[in-house]
Write a structure and sequence with these properties.
- The protein is of the alpha/beta class.
- It has a single domain, classed as TIM Barrel, CATH 3.20.20.70.
- 51% of the residues lie in helices and 12% in strands.
- It contains 14 helices and 8 strands.
- An 8-stranded parallel barrel has the order 1-2-3-4-5-6-7-8, surrounded by 8 helices.
């Protein structure tokens, strides 16, 4: 399978204080993304707080999203777990429910070696038959995928792409070239880190795995289209309009900000899972004032 390229939009997973998924709220979020014709939906990523949900609630979230998206938009779903056998079970759930692929991070408590990560990913891919997207998220996992390890994993049947953290322009350009040199042409190389993602797409990345795209897909789609067409000036123009949001993301974290924004624009009322706290009133006021000043091209 070839992973859909372009914009992969990552919504929050609204849930109650006891961890039960808000199916209506999630349906609204997914419907918004389907209507925007994003290339894929990244369900239960870090923004989707997958590690805070039970297996049952992860299943409920995926069933809800697949039911809403149908065959119109493929869903890549987080299947990360501390234990390999648990990740296998989550991947089996994902395949049975209808996910297009699983997003797998090197989640750990004890630091992992390259060989341990290779075994973990290979086992999940080969035992389940679910296409796997590597999730390189060193800020959370404290593990970083080297080009050598990515090349080894890309040779495993069923491991079809990677979601990388983006750095500044020069760093990402170098990193992208290093990965291109060790993976097949069909292997999808994508980036997250919204405030750096425009430069990643201009540099030739296949996919933007976007937090903001999970809420405001329109400007993110426009950036992807402009980058694909070689129009770096237009991509950077739209990115500049989003700079106030990137500033909020860096100040408060993208997760906390999109929870507040989802409430402010009336999609769903939800709080992040404890121990993560909702933003205080002063921060919410700052976000609300920023939202008022954004052009319709961003929020429409």
């Amino acid at each position: 399978m070839t992973i859909p390229r372009g914009l992969s939009a990552f919504p929050i997973t609204p849930s109650s204080s006891n961890g039960n998924v808000d199916e209506i709220g999630l349906q609204k979020l997914v419907a918004r993304l389907v209507e925007a014709r994003v290339e894929s939906i990244g369900l239960l990523g870090s923004t989707g707080t997958y590690m805070y949900l039970t297996r049952q609630e992860r299943r409920r979230a995926l069933e809800t999203a697949v039911g809403e998206a149908g065959a119109r938009t493929p869903i890549v779903v987080g299947i990360g777990a501390l234990r390999t056998d648990d990740a296998v079970k989550l991947a089996q759930d994902a395949k049975a429910i209808g996910a297009a692929a699983g997003l797998l991070a090197a989640v750990s408590y004890t630091s992992l070696t390259d060989d341990e990560v290779f075994g973990h990913f290979s086992t999940v891919a080969l035992e389940t038959g679910l296409p796997i997207l590597i999730y390189d998220n060193p800020g959370t996992t404290h593990f970083r995928f080297t080009p050598e390890l990515v090349g080894r994993l890309a040779a495993v049947p069923g491991i079809v792409g990677i979601k990388n953290p983006a750095g500044d322009r020069d760093e990402t350009t170098r990193h992208l070239a290093e990965q291109r040199a060790v993976v097949p042409v069909t292997f999808s190389i994508g980036y997250s880190g919204d405030w750096h993602a425009t430069e990643a797409m201009i540099a030739g990345a296949d996919t933007w795995h976007s937090v903001l795209g999970g809420l405001f897909p329109r400007p993110c789609q426009q950036i992807v289209i402009a980058a694909r067409q070689g129009n770096a000036e237009e991509a950077r123009r739209i990115d500049a309009m989003l700079a106030p949001l990137w500033s909020l993301f860096r100040q408060f974290s993208s997760l906390r900000v999109v929870y507040a924004l989802a409430d402010m624009i009336g999609i769903c009322r939800a709080e992040p899972p404890r121990p993560i706290l909702p933003l205080p009133d002063a921060a919410r006021h700052q976000i609300a004032e920023t939202l008022k000043c954004l052009p319709d091209e961003v929020t429409g």
